[in-house]
Design goal:
heterodimer, A: 314 residues, mainly alpha, MetI-like fold, 2 domains, 12 helices, 77% helix, globular, B: 276 residues
Chain lengths: 314, 276
Amino acid sequence: MYAYILRRLFMLIPVLFGVSIVIFFTLRIIPGDVAATILGTDATPQALAQLREDFGLDQPLYQQYFSWMGGVLTGDFGESMRTGQEVLPDIMSRFAITFELTILSAFISWIIAIPLGIIAGIKRNSKTDFGVRIISLLGVSVPNFALATVLILVLSLSFSYSPPVGYVGFFEDPITNLQILLLPAIVLGTSMAGAVMRMTRSSILEILRQDFIRTIRAKGAKERVVIFNHALRNAMIPILTIIGMQIGVLLGGTVIIEQIFSLPGLGQLVLTGINQRDVIVVQGAVLFIAFVFVIINLIVDILYSYLDPRITYK
Amino acid sequence: MREFVQRLIDDKIGLIGFIGILVVIIIAIFAPLIAPYAPDKMFTEHVLEGPSGEFLFGTDQFGRDIFSRIVYGAQVSLKVGLIAVGIGATAGLIFGLIAGYFQGKVDQVIMRVMDVFFAFPDILLALTIVAVLGPSLTNTMIAIGVVFTPVFTRLVRSAVMSVKENEYLTSAVAIGVHPVKIIAKHITPNIMAPFIVQITLALSGAILTEAALSFLGLGVQPPDPSWGVMLNASRTYMEFAPWTIIFPVTAIVFTIFCFNLLGDSLRDILDPKLKR
């Protein structure tokens, strides 16, 4: 098992290396002079040359890449071309917000989706099943930004609600923090619930058709025992896959939601960086998100073995 | 084929989705006939007016008819959907067929490159590509196409690998049929079922991603009538002109919902395990 985890961790190295190459060179295709965009049209040639020198933009591309990667490997993601501040501390403090939002959203979606998916699966083709299928499809079809906008509209019209300005950390004031994050988390959570609900339903259906369930039923086990002790445990594997994938989707989804709710998270950092052409910030933040994404996928893969002893790792 | 159509008709959910998509397609094709006004025509004396006989869905902040913009917006959404998925599906089919059929080193190289693209959340990758290429309709389609390529590649590759095990293929290889002929005549038709299901689901994903990118100001650019652009622009006025937001949201949700209904139903119909 440990050997497997180690091997998988080693396999992440080429993937992350590839990711860094893709990000770095893609961002260098941006047309126009980054220095001129940053300093504005009335910048003197000396100022432009100084900025290029400061950020190594006057060096050949491969050299810029290696010096960036060298920094990344030692925990130095470079400095923002706009503010001059170090990128990594900014990424870390913003990641805390994005991470909390992601986890809260995931949690909300599980509370909604897993019980409903199970009920729909058990009562296949019933009215409940039909209702759950429609709700879950609607959940998948409503884009989170549309849901967020409509929700803000409804709340502002009926309760004069407006999205909170500013952000308070969980450890500073947990209650205010949750007040700020609850609405965005509900939006992200419900938009993710559809997919989890569908997966839960279809995996329950798949498992209930199998021979071992028939055997357990034939032995006279109570339906509750069949469902909770046998079917659900086996159905958890595909459900876990989708949950793992969805956490990645959530990480991406936060880009839009943070923008709508003015949350200073990682997604907003990327978006501001893109709008301001701050390539150092964008490449650092995107690399970091990709890193978290592959680590989550790895954790999901490892969790499989705990749930399904048939999966052996070599 | 007849059995397939019959099963689609029997499955009410899929049929509803199919009809809904047909409606959107008809609206997009006949937009100039259906829309009462040009999408960018401004009625400066009718700014932010509610729905009326003259303006069915009301007007926006420039006095443009929202109904006409939604109708023309259907063209944008379907165009992005079809071309973006076309790019992703074609590239994925080619890479997947090559990787799955030849395996070995070629497979390793293709799949490792795809792994790299899988390491990005979809919207983030699309966002970065559009940011680099510059926000526009064409670049949005390219970005979404690139984002969808790995999904199609992985799907086609695994379908090819399972089809390849069949005896008729082993025999075809044994009697020396050219690989291109084997891929074109024997493998491709047999992997179409999952491929078509994925296309339907990807269409809804592409329409959603376009709306999201346009919403963020990185996709289709104003004054082009994209539903995402309309939604973003109306956020400032939504409290006193809710119609500016309700109709674009309904259009987006309806279209994506119909594609999902059809995709879901096709998956059930084409999945031999669920045939009962």
